[in-house]
Design brief:
alpha/beta; Rossmann fold; Transcription Termination Factor Rho, Rna-binding Domain, Chain A, Domain 1; 6-stranded parallel beta sheet; two-stranded parallel sheet; 8 helices; globular
Length: 239
């Protein structure tokens, strides 16, 4: 499978299942955060920003204002089990992962084709951004310690469900285009989730699906959508 050659100003990339194996998130990162949630929250609960996020957990889970760390942690663990894309959970995970990447306990893995392609696109003059359900904090910290070293310089912009919106809603892609200051037609989105590709296209974006063996959406019906098996099959040149 090879995508038709195209031109774009920005390439916006999903992370999980597109750039990194899903197992990196669902096993390595989730397990790391799960084991540290309660002690981390206890240690940082007095921080105003953290306290605000804990109040969001109470509100979304319909817990009483008096709910303590144990009750909040139980809710967060249940959300993780359900892979719920809840903003407060993503924020807390991001802070915990930030410490793990900074200490070297965590290292982000990529599919073999990803970093060479990203560097090639940058050298050609394309600009790169990320749109992930993981928080911006988590994105930046994970890119700071990867199998290819610190690759944060590759990405000029970061978007999550807090600053853009849900990934399956067209309005989120309109918000990103507005933030980047470019027409939707100059933006190319890469993701392994058909519904996300549809939302981007409905907003006027170009979009290409990634079908990677062993990933959750490897057998999804991409229909008439353009889909490839590797970044090597995406031919994009700068406008």
């Amino acid at each position: 499978m090879t995508a038709p050659a195209t031109t774009a100003r920005w390439v916006v990339l999903d992370i999980e299942g597109t750039m990194t194996p899903t197992a990196t998130v669902h096993r390595t990162l989730y397990d790391y955060a799960r084991a540290r949630l309660q002690p981390w929250i206890r240690e940082h609960a007095a921080d105003p920003e953290v306290a605000g996020v804990l109040d969001e957990v109470r509100e979304q889970a319909e817990l009483p204002a008096s709910a303590g760390v144990d009750e909040i942690a139980a809710v967060l663990h249940a959300w993780m089990d359900a892979d719920r894309k809840a903003g407060p959970l993503k924020a807390l995970q991001g802070w915990i992962w930030q410490g793990g990447f900074a200490s070297g306990e965590l290292e982000m893995d990529f599919f073999a084709d990803v970093l060479p392609a990203l560097r090639r696109w940058r050298e050609r003059g394309l600009r790169l951004a990320v749109f992930s359900s993981g928080s911006v904090t988590a994105q930046k910290s994970s890119f700071s310690n990867t199998v290819g070293g610190d690759v944060r310089e590759l990405f000029e912009a970061h978007f999550d469900t807090a600053n853009a919106g849900p990934k399956k809603e067209t309005g989120s892609y309109a918000a990103i285009a507005d933030s980047l200051g470019r027409p939707a037609g100059e933006l190319l989105f890469l993701s392994d989730v058909p519904a996300e590709l549809d939302a981007a296209r409905e907003c006027g974006w170009q979009a290409v699906g990634l079908v990677r063996a062993g990933e959750p959406f490897a057998d999804a019906d991409f229909g008439a959508r353009t889909a490839v098996g590797s970044f090597d099959d995406v031919e994009v040149a700068p406008l």
